[in-house]
Structures are given as C-alpha cells and as structure tokens.
C-alpha cells in the first residue's frame, strides 16, 4: 500500500506530537486530546483522497479498498474512520446542524423567522474555508451519485428535526407546526441550491451572495 503523499500515518502522528499544537493541547485540559487531533488529521486525509478519486473516476467506480490503498492503510482501518465510503464525502452531519440550530436560537426573537433562518445558514457559510476549490469539488461529488443524494436527504431530515422546534416556538396559530416545517424545509432547499450553484466551475459569485439570492427568491411578502 502506498503512504499518502509520502507520509505514513505513523509519521503524521509523530509530527503532530512534536508540533506547537501538541504543546497547546497538553497545557490545557479543556482542549481535545492528542489522540483526537491525530485521529481527525487522518480522517481528514482519508476524505481528501477519497473525494479526489471520486472526482476523477466516479463515485460508484471507486472501492473502499482502492481508497485505503491510496492512503496507505487497510480497508479495515478505513472503516474505523468511516462506516461507508459515502461518509467520506458527507462527514458528520450532526455538528453542523447543531451549529445552525444554535445560530438560530441566538437570533433576535422579534426578527422575521425567514430572516433568522437565512442569517443562521449564512453564519455556517462564514466559517473559515481552508480550500475553496476542494469544497466545490466535494459538492460536485455529492450530487453525482444516487446513494450520496440519499444521504443528503438524511441531512435534510436531521437538520429539520433540529430547526423546526425553534421555528415553531416563534409562530402562532393552529397551523404553527405546518408553517414551521414548511419554512425549515424551504430554507434547506435554498441552502442546497446555493451550494450546488456555487460548486459549478464557471460560477463566479460567492456562496454567501448566492445564499442571499436564493433566500430572497422565496422571501415571504409579510414577515412570518
């Protein structure tokens, strides 16, 4: 098996042990442990290799064994980091959904609900992006296979379950549940459409502006 980019996992872990990052970790019990940091570094590298292979050869054509060989690990080790190859693209959906939920909870109570949802998703897009082109490639891979599109639907359902109760609390009337579900599902569609458009290699507008345009298209005539 080939070590990834000339670096084995053992070497990666050793380099992290001697880094300034390690010094900051051992100095504070509130920070994640070294094992968590090295695990995340390896997990990130596996995902990067997997997405590159998916983009080059097609998602369905690439096997877990092929990804593992390219990284320099066994297929069994791959599954310690990702249950399936879809997970190497999708990642962990829960923390990002919780981020949007917390951003929504922090919005002013008297702000129109649609505006609050927009601001919450925009806060997610404002998070630092180390490699914009890789993120775009990931989005293109995400829409390229049926199994990945199905997993993206799981994201919709998960995030909707986190956001809908907060929206419902801010709505009145017998149809509050229906209206809350509609607003949340519509906001998720706006988010996905903005990112899918942004991932187009010919698109020049940034993701935040595309999100604004997407939300503006469905903005209610009267505040919710």
Automatic annotation (TrEMBL):
Highest rank taxon of the organism: Bacteria
Boundaries of every HTH tetR-type domain copy: 40-100
Alphabetical keyword list: DNA-binding, Transcription, Transcription regulation
Segments forming a coiled coil: none
GO molecular function annotation: DNA-binding transcription factor activity; transcription cis-regulatory region binding
Stored InterPro entries: DNA-bd_HTH_TetR-type_CS, Homeodomain-like_sf, HTH-type_TetR-like_transc_reg, HTH_TetR, MftR_C
One Pfam match: TetR_N
Record has DNA-binding as a keyword: yes
Keyword DNA-binding in record: yes
Protein name as annotated: DNA-binding transcriptional regulator, AcrR family
Native organism: Rhodococcus maanshanensis
Source species taxonomy: Bacteria, Bacillati, Actinomycetota, Actinomycetes, Mycobacteriales
